[in-house]
Amino acid sequence: MTTRAHTLPMPHPRFHDLDKVTSLYLHLVPAMVSWTLRWYPTKAFYGFPSHEALGAHRPATSRGGVVSLVLVPAVFYTAWAVAYYLKIFVISASRIKERGYQTLFGFVTTQRKGVFHAIAKRVRPSVQPAVYFALHMLFCLTTFVISIAAWHSYYVHTLLLLLCASMSMWHGAQYYFEVFAGR
Questions:
Q1: What is the pLDDT of residues 122-138, one digit of tens each?
Q2: Span 57-74, pLDDT tens digits
Q3: Closest Cα to residue 128, out of 137, 141, 138, 117?
Q4: Are 136 and 81 in contact (CB under 8 A)?
Q5: Shortest CA distance to 62 belongs to which of 112, 53, 28, 178?
């Protein structure tokens, strides 16, 4: 299961909004593809021998250990987080503010509920970006560790994928119910 799938349960899918549908697609499809490649690899499907055919000669990255499922993704996540932080809080900070763009950080700091809000209201605004990234990293590392169980168990992997997709649909349906019930 890809690390992007952990965002699926978040209340963002609204199917009338191209941005939300794109976000749903970018997070759900890689998780579905990784599930397919993990549990149904075939030589014809992706061009090389299946894991079963390779047997003990599989590359270390396909064995599903801590290095390939936690440490390597953590390196890429850290590179992304540093680049994102610099872009949002240093390079484009004034432009984002001037044009009134909404970032994920801005969204979660203005919500009146949730884990981040409960923590953010206890720290100075100048420290909130660092606290946000620390919590984000903790959440990502947790999902990286969960991916070990998903890698080794068809049922855990399938359950997680179904749970994420179902929660995403639930949040989208909830949004529509709130909008149409209020009219």
A1: 888 888 888 888 888 99
A2: 455 446 678 888 889 999
A3: 117
A4: yes
A5: 53
